Amino acid sequence: MNYNFTSDQLSLRDMTRNFVEQEVMPIAAEYDVKGEFPMEAFKKAADLGLTCLDLPEEWGGAGVDLLTTALIREELSRGDAGFSSAVGACGLGFKPIAFGGSDYQKRKYADVVTGGGLLALGLTEPNAGSDVANNKTTAVKQGDKYVLNGRKCFITNAPVADIITIFAITDPEAGAKGFSMFMVEKGTPGLSTPNHENKMGIRCSTTSDVVLEDCVIPAENLIGREGDGFKLVMATLAKGRVCAGASALGVAQCALEHALKYAQQRIQKGKPIYKHQLIQGKIADMGMQLEAARQLVWRAAMAFDANAADTDKLASMCKCFAGDMVVKVTSEAIQILGGYGYSRDYPVEKLYRDAKVFQLFEGTNEIQRTIIAGSMIREYKI
Ligand SMILES: Cc1cc2nc3c(=O)[nH]c(=O)nc-3n(C[C@H](O)[C@H](O)[C@H](O)COP(=O)(O)OP(=O)(O)OC[C@H]3O[C@@H](n4cnc5c(N)ncnc54)[C@H](O)[C@@H]3O)c2cc1C
Predict the structure, then answer these.
(1) How many domains does the chain have?
(2) Which of 1, 159, 171, 294 has the CA that lies 20 to 30 A from 199?
(3) CB of 9 shorter than 6 A to ligand 1
(4) Centroid of ligand 1 to alpha carbon of 236 (angstroms)
């Protein structure tokens, strides 16, 4: 593996870091309390091209690879994991179109993202979270239209999205081949986004249900062909998991920085607490776990960039490892800050709340472990 980043990668990372320190970090606590989406900051990120970096250049993006995207997502998340999740959800909404859409669809929807619009991916349903195949939303073809009915839940960006990519059944008899993906535009009659989630963390990203009631869309909004849905959504989630892992790194990095600073300022028993060996052990473990997760995220990203064979396993490994790591590291950051770490007047309790979701979304860490073990058994079949 070669981690000699190019000057373009490093300058993009530095530009993102500057943006985050100027525009995201100063408002993160306020939007966490309000539980509101910071649209103005998002538009500024879009103006810098940060919300569509991986779009191909011919559609107005920067065409960066997954490794570069991972660097950027870590930086965004170091500022605020909710903000980074909103950017990530745009990518999740667009990827099925990028993988399977027509040129017309790609251009039309790339214009939305490059113009500072938002996308969302509508997959999860009240009775179909981990069990994707149990989705019940239907899309019935009627002439040159589809009629969609169903309810999605926990959809990041849904209330602010210009386009929601919806996973629905087109052939109930065809099992996994009976699902298709559709683009549903904001304002389409029959589309609504009720039930805003009052979340524990990543509170500035907005999350709600998506209800489709006799929602009529043009047949040209089908992405790819009927029956492509499962394939498109799995490919989307695999790449998305590398970005989720990268975002977990940013939260852990931020928590570690706060802990390192505090450990040098806080005096107990006549010396800064970092001079107590048990605190040193915590600092060392936090640093090791974070760096190990970072290597795994970069390794997975580079495997995708090289079209390697074991990308799904590596994506699950990095998402799962980084998701568990960030919960541990943010918890230890609170421990280092002692009682102050538990106070909302200090930033690390927010980071701990933000961290938990990395074990849950984009496939829970239990599901990641089943994917990893399944791949390992297939690779070592006796
Ligand atoms: C903040 C947030 C944002 C989200 N954003 C989006 C989004 O933008 N788009 C979208 O479509 N979804 C989104 N989700 C949904 C998320 O992907 C699901 O919550 C997740 O897939 C788990 O589904 P579930 O909540 O129904 O849990 P369940 O699937 O009901 O799982 C409950 C528990 O059982 C375990 N479990 C379930 N099945 C198995 C199994 N086979 N083996 C072992 N353990 C199992 C799980 O690991 C978990 O611990 C979001 C969720 C959150 C919290």
Answers:
(1) 3
(2) 294
(3) no
(4) 16
